[in-house]
Amino acid sequence: MKKYSCKFCDWGGNEPYIDWTKDIYCPVCGDRIYKPNFIISGITYKDAVDFLLPKHYSGRKPQIKWAFGLYMNDILKAVCTFGKPASNTLCDGICGEQYSKSVFELNRLCREDDLDFQLSQFVSACLNILSDNNIIIVSYADTGMNHCGYIYQACNFTYTGCTKKRLEFYVENGHSRHGCKNSGKRKVRTSKHRYVYFAFRNKGEKNLAVKNLKYEVEPYPKTENKRYVLGEYQKPVVVKYPPIK
What we know:
The protein contains five helices and 14 strands.
């Protein structure tokens, strides 16, 4: 637990009661007693991809509309990206067709192993910035990577259940949407926990969007969460499948 004290008076405080993402001033004499050594800012597509590709388990470039970086002492330590989902059905299915264009996905979140910073605070800062756009954000925690979504829970995302495990076309070193029906192989698409966040600055518009949510709100899942090894890509589970004629 971090403790702060003022060199000019006897005041002291503990981390749980202080927003240590901002400058901290003594409430007694007004002297600044803490200055964060990090910066959260928008970054370029290239900077985001250069950081993510060697580290994130997906091993693929995401579609990026917004990208944010967390810098510690001017060194990029974490990246969070948001983009438009490839599936129109997904966009329509969150809150209906009228909100389809407002649906975006938090599609990558990755950090360096030595980062001494809560990722939930990083994500919350990104969501706060994006709230000016009045958008709906969906994100997934992959059960195949032993992810439960505790970061999303800490950021007050709404949990809407799990996607179903299914088979999809398999393409070696490629995406399933480019697969061949007659390849004779299928890849197992693991079940994913689905989370939704309403990033609206306007409370009235936010309440209206929430009322249009098409999924049932469910209790947060509580399972063991495991971190993956940076740079170790997720290996596809491939099964034989009769060709489709």
